[in-house]
Write a structure and sequence with these properties.
Layout lengths: L2 H11 L14 E3 L2 E3 L5 E3 L6 E2 L11 H12 L4 H14 L5 E6 L5 H10 L4 E7 L2 H10 L3 E5 L12 E7 L5 H7 E12 L5 H7 L2 H4 L4 H10 L4 E10 L5 H7 L15 E12 L4
Parallel strand pairs: 4-7, 5-6, 5-8, 6-7, 8-9
Antiparallel strand pairs: 1-2, 2-3, 9-11, 10-11
Helix pairs in contact: 2-10, 3-4
Length: 281
C-alpha cells in the first residue's frame, strides 16, 4: 500500500480527532483529501502526511538538521528518557483505545521510540509540528503514525480527544494542552536540566552563558497543572566518532560556531520529566 493510501486510512479511522483549521468543524476523508462540511479541502501528501497549516511558516530548522536528529535519537542518545516515559505510561494506560499526541514532534523519533516501548496495539500516535521539513522527515522514516503539519497555537484537533500529550524539548502552549487533553488524560513535558549537553556548552559558550535553570519553566507548568510530579533522568552518553558531526549539527548551541575544533567523547543527558493528570476531572 502506498504511503498516501495508508495515511488516508489512518486518518479515516481516527477522523474524530481532527478539526478543520479554518472553521473548526469535523473532517472526513474523501479519497486522498480531507474535507469538512464547509467544503474546506486539504490534500494528503504522497509522502505520507497531511498539511493543515493555514499559512506557510519560515523554516527555522533545515532538512539536514532533522536528519541529524533522527540519526542521533535512533543511535540511542535519549533511550533512557524514552524508557522512563514509556514505563510511566504503561502504569496508567487503560485497555481501551488510546490516542497520543506529540506536540512539536520535529522529525518524530521521540514519539515513535516511546510508542515502540509501550507496544500497545490499540494506540494511535499523532505528531504535529509547524515545520514541514520536520514532518516530511518523520513521514519518510515512520509509518503507522499520523504526521501533521499544523499551527501549535491553534492545532487542528477536536477538544478533549487525547489520552496523552507529549511535549519533548519543545515550546509549550498550555491553553491548547488543556483544550485537547481528555478529562482523564496525562500531560508529559520534558525540559533540560542544568547539566544538559554540558560538554558542548563548555566548548562553545562563555562561562556566564553556560549557566541554566529551568525553574521558570517548571513554575509555569505547575501553574497549569498544580498536581504535577517531576522525575529527573541523568546519565552520560558515549559519543561514537561516527555520530559526532550529527550531534554537533543538531543542537542550536553550535549554530554559527566554528565546529572544526570541537571534540566529544561523551555528553551529559540531564532532563526533567514533568508529569501531570488533567485538571478537568
Amino acid at each position: 500500500m502506498k504511503k498516501i493510501e495508508k495515511t488516508a486510512r489512518l486518518i479515516e479511522k481516527h477522523d474524530q480527532l481532527f478539526a478543520c483549521p479554518i472553521c473548526g468543524r469535523e473532517i472526513k476523508v474523501e479519497g486522498n483529501t480531507v474535507r469538512c462540511p464547509g467544503n474546506h479541502p486539504f490534500d494528503i501528501a504522497k509522502k505520507g502526511y497531511i498539511n493543515l497549516l493555514m499559512q506557510a511558516s519560515p523554516e527555522d530548522y533545515s532538512k539536514e538538521l532533522f536528519n541529524d536528529r533522527h540519526t542521533i535519537i535512533m543511535a540511542g542518545m535519549y533511550r533512557q528518557m524514552h524508557i522512563m516515559i514509556a514505563e510511566q505510561l504503561k502504569q496508567v494506560l487503560s485497555p481501551s483505545d488510546t490516542a497520543c499526541l506529540d506536540v512539536g514532534c520535529g522529525e518524530g523519533s521521540h514519539l515513535v521510540q516511546i510508542l515502540e516501548y509501550i507496544n500497545k496495539e490499540n494506540m494511535i500516535g499523532v505528531g504535529i509540528d509547524i515545520s514541514k521539513d520536520g514532518i516530511m522527515t518523520a513521514a519518510k522514516y515512520y509509518e503507522d503514525v499520523i504526521w501533521t503539519v499544523g499551527d501549535l497555537s491553534k492545532s487542528p484537533f477536536q477538544s478533549k480527544q487525547f489520552d496523552i500529550i507529549l511535549n519533548i524539548l519543545s515550546p509549550a502552549n498550555y491553553h491548547e494542552f488543556s483544550r485537547l487533553l481528555k478529562a482523564t488524560g496525562l500531560m508529559i513535558k520534558v525540559i533540560p536540566q542544568a547539566n544538559y549537553l554540558r560538554e558542548i556548552r563548555e566548548q562553545v559558550l562563555d562561562e556566564e552563558k553556560r549557566k541554566y535553570t529551568n525553574d521558570q519553566t517548571i513554575e509555569k507548568f505547575r501553574k497549569h497543572f498544580p498536581e504535577m510530579e517531576k522525575r529527573r533522568v541523568q546519565y552520560k552518553w558515549q559519543v561514537d566518532p561516527v555520530y559526532q558531526e550529527a550531534l554537533l549539527n543538531m543542537t542550536p548551541l553550535t549554530w554559527g560556531k566554528d565546529k572544526a575544533n570541537l571534540s566529544l567523547e561523551e555528553v551529559t543527558i540531564d532532563l526533567d520529566i514533568l508529569i501531570a493528570k488533567s485538571t478537568q476531572m
